[in-house]
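# step 3/5: fold
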Amino acid sequence: MNSTSSANEMTFIKNSLRFPPELLHKILIHVIGNSIHTICIFPESVEWELGVYKTLRCVSSTFKSLTTEIFRKCFVISQEESESKRVLDHNLSLSIKADTLPSSLPHLIAGNFDYLRILAERLSHSSKNGGNLFPPSDIYRAVPLMHGYALFIISVDMRYNVVHSSSEIYELSSLSRMKALDVALGLCKYIEPEGINEVIYDALRNEQDLVHSAVLKGLEIVKAFSKLKTHLSSFNESANGCLARMQSASQIFIHEELQVIEKAHPRYTQVMSTHRFTPGGDRRKISELSGIVPVLRELCALQMEADKYGIHERLIYLVGEWSASCPFLNP
């Protein structure tokens, strides 16, 4: 094989491996979209994702052109802005200008990545710093992708930290999260270019499903146990006073609230065991919900002369279902 035929063969192979621009654009959209999302859910191990722009633009001139176009659109960065001296500080609060600082699109992209990473890190460590999650900076409210992710991260933080709260705070938090997620989903239609919003849209719908199913079921369980705590006081008073009629009425109340719990807990358990969790890795067990363990232990210690509703057996069943995740429920 002479050098001419070898060169022609190499040219043929090179041309045959080229992607059509439309297909390459979709591949880059997928890579960039997943990189942005990964920064938000695994902020402590995202070295490759943080450098995704510089990596992709070095592949070829076509990669550089398409990657630059995608990033400019999704972060709403104009040509003029990318060439200015505008940079983002790491306190997430100011947009500043400094003649001594570099002017480049990579620097602006890095500033956006840092904002999301730091916000997500504060979510990961919010239990250690008292839940002090920094609010979204005003400079990002004009960028639908950034605002949507800020609302998403804060919503997950609320889910993670409210689990031990009272039923009132638990309910208020759930309502607030639903509103935040609705706003974030509404922003998705304004995110460009087309397709870059698929990952965040799926994550938001996933989180919304968790609110509507597991969280609301969890709220039903928390409320039922709160009512049971009140019934326990009545039951103990009636037992001490030997008022059989009052004790019978308290048994009815306990029976009715147990029905609510028995109906809600299978769905809660199912969703919490199969849900595709996002930041925080939260898989809260029922026994970790507010006020459940002490009330359940007190219920199990009740002495009932006439257990008409099989309350004791039902409680033993619940303890058996939940004790694997909570040693305090083990006999």
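# step 4/5: annotate
Strands lie at 86-88, 95-97.
# step 5/5: archive (pending)
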